[in-house]
Amino acid sequence: MEKREATPRRIARRKYEAEHKEERKAAHAVWGTSMNRADFEELNKFLLENGIPKIHLIYAGWAALKEQYAQNK
Questions:
Q1: Are 42 and 36 in contact (CB under 8 A)?
Q2: Angle at 3 between CA 2 and CA 4, to 5 degrees
Q3: C-alpha 56, offset from chain centre
Q4: CB–CB of 57/47 below 8 Å?
Q5: Number of neighbours of residue 26 by Cβ within 10 angstroms
Q6: How far is residue 39's CA from residue 37's CA, in Å, rounded to a whole number?
Q7: Which site from 21, 33, 37, 70 is most exposed, i.e. has the minimal number of CB atoms within 10 Å?
Q8: What distance in Å separates the CA atoms of residue 17 and residue 9, rounded to the nearest whole number?
C-alpha cells in the first residue's frame, strides 16, 4: 500500500494534529470495551435505525444509572 501524496493541506493537518495531541488527550478519553457480537450487532442496528450516536447512548445510560442509584440511597 502506497502513501498518499503529501499535499500542503495534509502537511498542515499533520502539523496541527502533532501540535495539539497532548491537548486532545487531556480533554478526551477513549473507553475501549468489548461485548458479545450478537448484542453488538443488535445494538448497532437499533442505533442506526433511530439515528442515535453512540455517545448519546452512553450519556443516557449514565444518567439513568445515576438516577437509579440515587433512588436506592
A1: no
A2: 115
A3: 10
A4: yes
A5: 8
A6: 5
A7: 33
A8: 12
- Residue 2, all three cell numbers: 502506497
Of 43, 68, 71, nearest in space to 58 by CA? 43
* Backbone CA torsion sign across 7, 10, 16, 20: negative
Phi-psi group of 51: left, alpha or beta (phi > 0 → left; psi -120 to 50 → alpha; rest → beta): left
Q: What is the pTM of this model?
A: 0.63
pLDDT of residue 33: 85
pLDDT mean by block of 10 residues, the chain; 73 residues: 90 94 88 89 96 96 96 86
If you ran DSSP here, which 8-state letter would residue 60 be given? Answer: H
Query: Strands, DSSP E only, in the chain?
Result: none
Contact 4, 10 (CB under 8 A): yes
Q: What is the pLDDT of residue 30?
A: 79
